Amino acid sequence: MNSDNPQFDLALEQATSEIRGEEVPDAVVEAAAERVWARISQGAAEPPERIRTCADFQALLPDFRAGRLPEARALLVQDHLHECVTCRNVAQGKVVPILRTRPRSNHAVRWALAAGVMAAGGLVIWLSINPFGGGPGRAIVQSVNGTLFEVSPAGLRVMAAGEVLQDAVEIRTARDSDATVKLADGSLVELRERADLSADRSGADLTVHLDHGSIIVQAAKRRSGHLYVATADCRVAVTGTVFSVSSGIPGSRVSVVEGEVHLMHDNQEQVLHPGEQASTGDRLEAVTVRQDLAWSRNAGLQRQLAVLRSNLDRLPMPQVRYSSRLAGSLPASTVFFASIPNLAQYLAAAEGVFRRQAADSPELRAWLSGPGSGTQAVLDKLRAANEYLGDEIVIFGTPETAGPVFLAETKREGFPEFLKKSGVPLAVETRSGLVLFGPRKEALAVALDSGFQKTPFYAHIAEAYSQGAGILLSADLSHLGSQGGPEGIRYLIAEQKEIDHHMQTRAAVTFDGPRTGVAAWLAPPSPMGALDYVSGDASFVAAFAVTSPAAILDHQPEVTVPQPEFGLLKEAASTLGGEFALALDGPAFPVPSWKLVAEVYDPARFQAALGKFVAEYSREAVARGGKPPVTGQETIDGRTYYTLAGADTGPLTEAHYTFASGYLIAAPTRALLARALEIKANGTGIVHSPVFAGMLPRDPHTDFSAVVFQNLGTTLAPLAGLLPQQAAQSIGNLKPSLIAAYADSGSIALASTGDLLGMKLNTFLSGSLSGMAGNAMPFPHFGGTNREKVPSR
């Protein structure tokens, strides 16, 4: 309000400021609130419940629409609908309520999946006692680099680190400045320069209003309620998540680093996962998540966490186990079994690494006092829990338990009391030096030593132990469904351990009898001469041996090739030896440098059958009014080169091939063929590449049934800017990998020097680790070391 009297305006401004700054005693506020609610409740049939959250208002909407609410309450709802976009959309029927329950799954094998997840981590104790989360507190300014303002009608006030923030107070970072704010629920918000936001609470919910600018949020885990970030055109709902939000004139952009984000925009909800990004404006082009967060001062933390991982790589690891007393004592009906080593010594060593590096790293110290503040507490509780237990922890399940049961030897008394003191909701039972615990008390009523050692399932587990067990997971798949596993698979054995300072992961499926169907196509291990034509610079290679190429065609009922052509295909396939290699061996653009190498026992008969097939196909194509494919051949220096191309010739539909030393070599250009022959002659194939050879599994096998190698990161890098954001992020994180397969009459095994089981320690130790932590703490360390020296390749 303006008047013609400046003195009156000044006095009014001063009085308003004094009223706004006056601190009213809590007792006075409570008494006033009770009087207001008493008046509002007049005329109501029943005393009203308190209305605090959007869910409370949404529950009143049916009566509000029907006109059944008392006038005072209807006014409250109407006022809330003016302020809350989400509830207004719900009232108009445009969207469903945000706060909703998810249907429970009744899948018959959900207990097995749950057991597998917990077994993979082996840290179910911590999963129950995770100290993250908490009740409401006071928001404070945690750090300021430059200048942070409090914005009010009175003007701008400079704020300092450590100041308490009141609800709904607007703050803004200045030019070339940034700040970090710890919200009332423990969440951290990092503000970029010229970011403008405020925060307010409603019951258990906390909403950050971002007027403009960019922020990175590390949302605390919560026992109730949500954290929301609202911009001018969207609303984000999260719990225990790391993400960034930018708001500007073209719209808003949300990038997810860790966890799950629910984005409400334009009356629609979109769920985003790690590495994904969404924009509300058509003018906003996608950027990588890394680029979206590049302004953060925590960039140095990434380097420190990489050093941390390197240091953890050198920690002494639990020894592998060659026998298990616990496995022999399980119920005869056991269908799921997992085993992990006790982690007490490793966790103690990990704590030492944290302390030493934090002493030398300000970035890591700041992280441990902020988003990683719970790490020490987690390590302490994990180590304390493991000190009560023996050297091995077993997780098993039977059809009767309908859930996982944990079994361990007791090293010291007091484990049940420890769980109770820590607030862990697990049932516990002790029996003669053993302790059983799990989420379901009735599942603990199982009979131990009931004959499991006499079962075939136990025999497979004992065989795995005889080779040295680190992390071991196994299942009798015949009890997980009426028909058993797919293609007659009976048992699954997966394990991860360290051999000669290298991680080794293996997974094997055993069939209930000889392999049949598609599973029977893979031949026993054999030499891979086709790899001699693939260079060490290849970014992708898949080599495999099949039992009978011609027989494979008989198992393809969906093939619609006319009988004459189909017969010619089988004739050509019958000349093949069964060994193949497919590679990307050179640039991927503009024409992919693919390479196909196939073992051929009779090149002349193969070429004759292929020539007849092309002639028959050409005749039918012309009869249909189409164009025949283009073929040709040329002899250079005594070697014949063949060409096969589509009717409309082009580099993408053209193939050249030749025969050499019992192999057919095909590629899109003659130059690639010449290069392949040169690689073979010089003995510089991929098997001699240090990267390829260094990733080979360390085991007794000299040959493979199949091997798949990829080093696509650098090859696909030029595509990153052309792909969707999630795909671009995946390309950026792609690392070389190699998986080898071995088949025999009744099983197929896979082996890798990488983390084939996909288990990472950092996801268990952090709870709410920033995505910048990356893979700071590799879970494979828990695989154990091999006491027997394995010769290096």
Task: Describe what this molecule looks like in 3D.
It is globular and about 90 Å long. The longest helix has 21 residues, at 603-623. It is built from 23 helices and 34 strands. The protein has an 18-stranded antiparallel sheet, sandwiched between helices. The chain has a 16-stranded mixed sheet that branches. The chain has 793 residues and is of the alpha+beta class.
For this entry, give a set of tags:
single chain; 793 residues; alpha+beta; Jelly Rolls; 5 domains; 18-stranded antiparallel beta sheet; 16-stranded mixed beta sheet; 23 helices; 34 strands; 30% helix; globular; disordered C terminus
Q: What is the average per-residue confidence, as pLDDT, rounded to a whole number? A: 77
Using only C-alpha atoms, the radius of gyration works out to 33 Å
- Whole-number tally of structural domains: 5
How many beta-strand elements? 34
Structural category: alpha+beta
**Which ranges are low-confidence, i.e. pLDDT below 50, for 5 or more consecutive residues?**
39-48, 94-136, 756-793
Largest sheet report: 18 strands, antiparallel
Helix content: 25-40%
Strand content: 25-35%
Q: Work out the helix count.
A: 23
- What is the terminal-to-terminal distance? 85 Å
Shape: globular
Summarize the structure.
30% of the residues lie in helices and 27% in strands.
